[in-house]
Amino acid sequence: MKITLISLLFLSISFNLINSYSSFTGAEGVMMLDNNGVAIQAHGGQIQKLKNVYYWIGEDKTNDYKPCLGIHMYTSLDLYNWYDEGLVLKTMKTESELKDEYFSKLYGDLSAEEQYAIYEDLWQGTDGSEGCVIERPKMLHCPKTGQYVIWFHADGTTPSSSGQSNYAKAKAGVAVSDSPLGPYKLLGTYLLVNDDKYDHTWDNIGGHVRDMNLFKDDDGTAYVIYSSDGNTNTYIVKLNDEYTGISKSGDKPVEGVDYIVTFVKNSREAPAMFKANNKYYMISSGCTGWSPNPASYAIADSVLGNWQTIGNPCVDDGASTTYETQSTCVYKVNEGEYIYMGDRWFSGYLRDSRYVWLPIEFDAEGYISIKKHSNWDLSIFSKIKPFKILTNLPTEVNSVSDLKNSLPSSIIIQYIGESTTQTVTVEWSFDIDDNSIADISITGSLSIERSIIHNVQIFDKRTIYFFDSGAGLYGNGDYYTNLKAKLGSKLLNNEGDQAYIKGTQAGYSSSLGGTDDNVDISYKGTGNDIWSHGFWAHGGKNIVYSFELKAGTYYVNEGFFEWWNTQRYMKITVSAGGKEITNKTFTLGKSDTRNQQSVKFSLTSTQIVTVSVSKTSGSDPVLSWISILQEN
Ligand code: GAL
Description:
Blueprint lengths: L4 H13 L25 E8 L2 E7 L10 E7 L6 E8 L10 H7 L4 H10 L10 E10 L6 E9 L14 E7 L7 E6 L21 E5 L5 E7 L4 E6 L20 E4 L6 E8 L2 E7 L10 E5 L7 E4 L14 E9 L2 E8 L9 E9 L5 E3 L9 H4 L3 E3 L6 E2 L2 H7 L3 E6 L6 E8 L8 E9 L4 E8 L4 E5 L3 H4 L2 H11 L18 E3 L12 E5 L7 E5 L5 E7 L2 E9 L7 E9 L2 E10 L6 E9 L3 E11 L4 E2 L1 E6 L2
Parallel strand pairs: 22-26
Antiparallel strand pairs: 1-2, 2-3, 3-4, 5-6, 6-7, 7-8, 9-10, 10-11, 11-12, 13-14, 14-15, 15-16, 17-18, 18-19, 19-20, 21-23, 23-24, 24-25, 25-26, 27-38, 28-31, 29-30, 30-37, 31-36, 32-35, 32-38, 33-34, 33-36
The protein binds beta-D-galactopyranose (GAL).
């Protein structure tokens, strides 16, 4: 073992003298310098702690894409300040370098043929356009052999395949060392699981390995996770006890026992697996090369189990590009304290690509979120600890004012994993209209500088009509059914949705049909909830509902969901007897899924009132539901 007192001494001396970081720049992604003041070269990397020392390995991109110099390692005692340990796996320019001291110590005992295979895998090329590509290196300590084992995505060209595509080889490289600091000896590069059930047309053969990662479970079982089959599928494969190859229960690996294939045809890359609270998590990216895309995460009860995709863990502005990063690793600092590590690739000058590290926040149900923190330090984890709310909060109320009266001004919480409870005060903020109905979310700011989001359903007793647009096609839905059960004949419509025709006093009066333009409106969306399905209007047409109403004061509420990622400028117009009574303009945001608008109007005599949703400019209007409340 090379790391012992001497390196540790260097570590502390150099950190004291040269660098003194005490925070991470997070989403800002400021260049991270090592103890020599040089930009850290450990891209697509991994961090772990072994015997009180943090190890970070990654791709050395000093030469941008090529020639590839190998795998670089850094060590740290505090995660903020990193000491350069140099290249722990080196590549070579010429075959004759195999005779040099460094390489002959590692490969001198191999046959000429075996040595040539190593030369091919570690060939740097000569002109910067050829040679090996080493990506996403990860290291594990093997308890059985005591060795340190690196796996990486081995690609690029060899002296004999020069000129070929850089990602045609698509193998896994495996290297071992007796010291975490290397030098690592390459054992070879390998195709992994070849499962004929999956489509190999893109790759010609199965077993290809591209973006990859390793994961070691608490019982010491290790896994390699990689994109394969033209990057369409993700393989999770158990390693053998030595961590130098894959486990084979039969003549070959057995699906379900040695490996699984998951996210089939989902084209996921950059997998980063971790375990928290006995659940397994995997964050991954889409496949858009060096350009960022939205991350997605999945949860499973076991590594080779059923992975359930949850969605993008990023919640702040910039979530659609994962704050301009691509996942590479999740590091567990302590129980409940996890850091997302992403690469912000600069494709034209890869050497300057940044490391963006962000804390992962868990909620009481174990769902995660990644927020856009800048300049944060490890003390943040005490501020984002997940907790349960032990106080029962109202989930169903009669009106917004009832909700305001029934919400407590303090609640009891309990941090996950702790037995004591705490009473904290809450300040609720209602960013909603007083006449809102159906599902609403409210935010509570807690005295412990945390906030909670609480979802409530409002069944307003003043409702005389509720139409779940499109219910005719999709079934009446839970909200209408529950409302009808509560209000009985006070709710005047007996169907979830209906056309306004002679004989019915209310319903949609636009013509509804297929997608051809001779109708006004068409169905859109799926799903049983009132928001996710509804109507869209054809070019220049409006979505109109009509109601026969007696003299009185009313609120018309309408709900909107954006299906096409489009910002819509819309207007609600209430008219009677051909005359406009009132209108309201509003904007439906691109990612709005629960936009609710309320308009008040009064009638002095019984009239047929039309409520029309139109556009004021741009795209045509949409509508998910409409209701009429009558003021008592
Ligand atoms: C990304 C991948 C990187 C690298 C890059 C090349 O999708 O995650 O590791 O292979 O493509 O374009």
